[in-house]
Amino acid sequence: MASAKPAKRQPPDGQPAPTPPSPRGGGTGRTIGLRERKKQKTRESIQRTALRLFEKQGYEATTIEQIAAAVEISPSTFFNYFPTKEDVVLYDAYDPMAIRLFLERPRDEPLIVGIRQVLEELASAFERDERLILARGRLIMGVPELRARLWDEVDRTQVMIARLLAERTGRRPDDFELRVTARVVTGAILEASLEWMRTNGRRGLVELVIDALDVLESGIGLSLLTPPVEGVVSRRAARPRPRPSRARARSAR
Fold first, then answer.
1. What does pTM read for this prediction?
2. In whole angstroms, what is the distance from residue 36 CA to residue 101 CA?
3. Which CATH architecture has domain 23-218?
4. Separation in Å, CA 245 to CA 207, 237, 252
5. Of 152, 151, 175, 148, nearest to 164 (Cα)?
């Protein structure tokens, strides 16, 4: 790193920048206030600028002072949003949107159905920001200090999903079945994301995540570990694929 790693500082609300609060906490609930929207917009602007600089001159060579100057804020303001340079990469701007959309789904809707619907609603945002998301993924997998924090981020996502399920079902967040469900869903999303990065986004991220959820929904049995039988179409293969958006169709030409 080009400059000494600064001591971690907390944003004004006392929560680490990349970690959304509990769905009951108000910050990521069903409505978001103007002040929170402005903070979220600034946070995303800092991240986009930082990723552009990392791509242009390298992660190690880019300092927090350079990022702050490019966004036209002070370094101290940067620390109001991100405790460290690592956190500006690890922050997931889609978490608040996904939380809001999920909590708006009917409570009696099956979990996998609800997640699919949320993903489909976010598909246009993922397509729009595909280059940025891929850049984040490459940094996380390619920079040792970022990769070392990957499992912390996986745990954070699992806790977030568990809290959402608790809000939806009325169960306690530490309920065993609820935690197992959150862990399995998190693992499916992670594997789909890694496959998406490995193939350089050849297939849509939403499509891959839905495929991973289909594996969960169909059950993990020995049939998945045996060679496919010629002429037999699996349940997932038989499932109609969503039509690509116009933007993706144009890019494929």
1. 0.68
2. 17
3. Orthogonal Bundle (1.10)
4. 12, 20, 11
5. 175
